[in-house]
Amino acid sequence: MNGYTNQYLATTVNSASPEQLMLMLYDGAIRFISLGIEAIDNGLVDKRAYYINKTSAIVSEFAATLDHNQNAKLAEDLDALYAYMLNRLMEANLKNETAPLIEVKGMLSDLRATWAQAIELNKKELREAAGT
After folding, report:
1. SS3 assignment, position 5
2. What is the pLDDT of residues 67-97, one digit of tens each?
3. pTM for the complete prediction?
4. What's the Cα-to-Cα distance from 76 to each of 66, 67, 70, 114, rounded to whole Å?
5. Cα distance between residue 126 and residue 61, in whole Å
6. How confident is the model at residue 5 (pLDDT cuts 50, 70, 90)?
7. What is the number of helices (H) and of strands (E) in the chain?
């Protein structure tokens, strides 16, 4: 990346809301896992490991930042789902297989869509409560 791209990215991240940051992380995880699938398809073992590790880091961050005090059941369920994803990512890396990556990509895409919808519903409720 060049200096302008880095500056733009830093500005975007620094000005993003927590909700926007979460969606950006989901986008990054989906992008990295797609690149991991591509790397396996093209026989690029070093790239496969790199992209799977990037995806794993994001999923691990999701698990680490769960708030078990807010909604304990939801946090518990998401924690179990993230643990499953991490196991599938590790399996894909060890066995050089795309099937686990495709499965996790679908889960990440579904979660991203669900969070985006929840964020929009919350915004709508806040606007209605404010009378706008």
Report:
1. helix
2. 999 999 999 999 999 999 999 999 999 999 9
3. 0.85
4. 9, 9, 11, 17
5. 28
6. low
7. 5, 0
